[in-house]
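Researcher: First entry.
Model:
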Amino acid sequence: MTRQYYAWAGGTPDDHAALARMSAAGPADMGPLLASFRGGVGARALGRSLALLALVCVGLGAMVAGLAPGGPSLALVVGAWCVAAAVYLPAMLVVHLAARRTRQDVHRHGLVVRGPGSRAEALPWESMDPGRIFIATSVRAMTRMPLALPRQQAVLPPGVVVNAWTDRPLGSLPVAEALSQGYRYQPAPTDSPFGWWQLGPSDPRAFLQAVEAAMVADGYPAAGLTPFVLARRVRAGDLRRAPELQRERALVDPVVGLPQG
């Protein structure tokens, strides 16, 4: 069975039925679990963190040695290193544990994602546009994306940025969600049920391969998704030069899709 990603067709009954279906979809509607991923601190991020720690230790040690009233002292330098490590390493542990609390489950009909301290949310394949998926390679690129806090689920780069269904519009608060339910059923052309999700699987390649396989098995045109996304490694400068990369997908925007051929 061949399926298509959702695209606005002018406000037909099928349009509104699809919006209502995606709005009502929950984790239990995504079908059997095919693969599960958790966030984590990647090897590159860990290496940079340890390099920064080493730089701080060297600088702090040199400063302590230079300011010591009795001249350089190995004990003072080692003590300064221990203080720096005692502050920095627990902070890194907190970051790692926060990343591990994020989860991305690949199901037959969509993703079920969960951020640190947030509820599980369903992202149906139908609501995604594979042509809008890319990888944010730096913290600056990650923080430039227009994201509501519950959709920021990557703790450290790289972040896999996905455009999909959301019931939390940009800037909304959970307490206000009940007041914004209606827009999902009778949306105006300027409203959008789609939003950016920044996911932080520790192995982006394996995650994308699982997503591609699940989409294809469910009938969606997603062949070639993995190499396409892995080639779209975006920095903050790229977002500055090409702001359309981060523009919110409007309800009436067409599906970009994957390159053909």
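Researcher: Second entry.
Model:
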Amino acid sequence: MASPAAVRDVAPLHPVYLHQLYRDPAPEPEPLLPSVRRELLFFCRTLKWCILGFIFLASFLVLMWIIFHPSFPLLNVVSASMSPVSFTATAASADCNITLVLTNPNHHLAASYDRMEISLLYASQQVPLSKFHQPRVVQRKHSQTTLQANLSFFGIDLGGGVASAMKQDLDRGSLGLTIKIFSVIKFRNGKWKTKSRYMRAYCPGVSFGFVSSTRSGIFLNPYQECQVYLYSK
């Protein structure tokens, strides 16, 4: 049994009430001021419309590029004729007529060709023989145009080496020529048009077979496809 002194040393007991076991919850944050809310809402709406506008503009530009981006014209040598080639010393002469088909493959763009120049070259030496200037050509959308070029040459001085090489080709029964085309081209859709571009086309391997020196040449590769290039001025 505890002594009276030990009982006196024990701390007195105090009653504990229920409301002392809990703390008041943290105060709720004060609501945003109406002006701050309006500014935040305006910013969000502006950002949304800017994003939508950017997406619409980008889609529109891509669509316009797909529709109006011009495809290269197509050019083919469909027929050709050549008379026997005659020589006077180092000069050569022959009648030569070429038929080309120019195709505009664009479904949404018309094309116009200015200052078109068609040249005939002796293929193995790349020596120019004749030149033909084609009047202005205007093509509708997705259409074809036939071009007739008179590339005859008369008394063109080739020099001894080139004349000798051409005679050897004729003696072997064939003569290879190259056609080059240069033009300034524009594409148009209504009032909208592209800036002017240069067009260069190369038609290699235009060959004629000769069975004798007195008979006309036979065009060996009809529908010869040309290589077409476009580049900015």
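Model: Note on the second entry: The chain has three helices and 15 strands.
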